[in-house]
Write a structure and sequence with these properties.
Structural class: alpha+beta
CATH topology of the domain at 101-216: Four Helix Bundle (Hemerythrin (Met), subunit A)
Largest sheet: 6 strands, antiparallel, barrel
Oligomer: single chain
Radius of gyration: 48 Å
Helix content: 25-40%
Shape: rod-shaped
Strand content: 25-35%
Mean pLDDT: 87
Length: 414
């Protein structure tokens, strides 16, 4: 009797234990989220953030040839119309600070007054000097004629007197000839001096005209119809009211061609080897996430650059946007998915569903009432999924998280 009781109690304990075990595994299988193994296209993408720009645009320039009037410093923008303003050809865009040019113009006008006075003085001095030289020639010619008359009258005089008259005539002739030569030299010198003063004066006048012309371009107008977009300087900052332009880069703003857009983005040095010209891209605009566009990689930089505020190196990548849309505006932020690889008809799982240890890679399979571990082999992966090459079939339910006591679960190897 006692023996039968012990047997009955033992069977009851075993039944309770079995019930608890299967209830636990069934609970684990039913309470843990699972996903089916997906079969289809698998893509590997490099995801980046970019900014829309017009592929082609026309710059709106400020004053040109500032260096020709000795303007070397930056010119401040006093006023610039708001970004996004639609303008017609000839509409006002910006006004620039004229202080330095006006100051130089006043200095040049003062210099010009001095040069004009110098020109007048040189012309008067030259006229007086040349008149004096001409009068001297006339007097010397008279003296030469008088000496000739003395020679003619000395024919009846003693030889010594005749000889003295000839010598006097020859001296008068020589003095006259020398005076003529000196007059020619004086005339050439006077002309050279006048030409020099005139050239200096003309140069100053032309410089003033050029300065006045350049000063007129300190008010900037639109060269054609379009939407005004602010220009970025070499530091990436937008040129706006209060900013400055330099004699080497006088771009004030830009009129973009909105019919053809690009997304300019930067790829980190880890992923840049995956990106190549011609790869397809999925593009979404942060402001309109419900709209999706396609694109293609057009340019990949060969040389990296330092990212501001970081030690990381990035490479500039230019993506052509295939479609045009009226909502697209320069400077809009884009999400770019550059498709670096694609596979057809493969099995894939979320990365969170695949686990590994030192020796193998495995998943947890939901068998309905219980869970098992199963070894798998993997291949390419992207941000969300990983390709399964062996160990699973399409549609099998795989747990997304690790169940309780995973080491106690049965392991199915390949």
């Amino acid at each position: 009797m006692k023996k039968k009781l012990l047997i009955t109690l033992g069977v009851a304990v075993l039944l309770l234990a079995a019930t608890w075990y299967f209830a636990r595994t069934e609970s684990a299988a039913t309470t843990t989220l699972s996903v089916p193994v997906r079969q289809g296209i698998f893509e590997v993408a490099v995801v980046t953030t970019g900014e829309l720009e017009a592929k082609q645009s026309e710059n709106i320039y400020g004053p040109e040839n500032l260096r020709s009037i000795q303007i070397w410093s930056e010119i401040k923008i006093n006023e610039l119309i708001p970004e996004g303003t639609v303008v017609d050809s000839g509409d006002f865009v910006a006004s620039l600070d004229q202080t330095e040019v006006v100051s130089k113009l006043k200095d040049l006008e003062n210099e010009l007054d001095k040069l004009e006075s110098q020109y007048t003085k040189t012309m008067l001095d030259t006229s007086l000097n040349m008149r004096s030289a001409r009068n001297e020639l006339v007097n010397l010619k008279f003296a030469m004629e008088e000496a000739q008359i003395a020679v003619d009258q000395s024919k009846f005089e003693p030889p010594a007197t005749q000889r003295q008259a000839v010598i006097s005539r020859d001296k008068a002739q020589r003095t006259y000839d020398q005076a003529v030569e000196n007059y020619v030299l004086k005339d050439e010198k006077a002309q050279a001096e006048m030409q020099e003063v005139a050239a200096t004066l003309d140069q100053a006048r032309r410089k003033k005209d050029r300065m006045v012309q350049i000063l007129g371009t300190f008010t900037v107008y639109a060269p054609k119809p379009g939407m005004v977009i602010y220009q970025r300087d070499w530091r990436g900052k937008k040129t706006q009211t209060g900013s400055s332009i330099s004699p080497w880069d006088n771009t004030v703003a830009v009129l973009p061609d909105l019919s053809k857009m690009i997304s300019k983005t930067y790829v980190n040095e880890i992923d840049i080897s995956k990106v190549q010209k011609g790869q397809p891209v999925r593009i979404t605009i942060d402001a309109f996430p419900e709209r999706q566009y396609s694109g293609i990689v057009d340019e990949v930089a060969n040389i990296g650059q330092q990212m501001q505020g970081s030690d990381a190196k990035v490479f500039e990548v230019v993506i052509n946007v295939n479609q045009s849309d009226t909502i697209m505006r320069p400077s809009m932020t884009t999400k770019n998915e550059i498709i670096t690889a694609a596979f057809d008809n493969v099995l894939a799982l979320p990365i969170d569903a695949v686990h590994s240890n030192d020796t193998l890679t495995f998943v947890f399979i939901n068998k309905g009432n219980y869970v098992v571990r199963k070894e798998v082999k993997t291949a390419a992966s992207n941000e969300n999924e990983i390709v399964i090459t062996e160990g699973l079939e399409a549609g099998e339910e795989v747990l997304l998280s690790i169940p309780e006591n995973p080491d106690d679960l049965k392991l199915i190897t390949l």
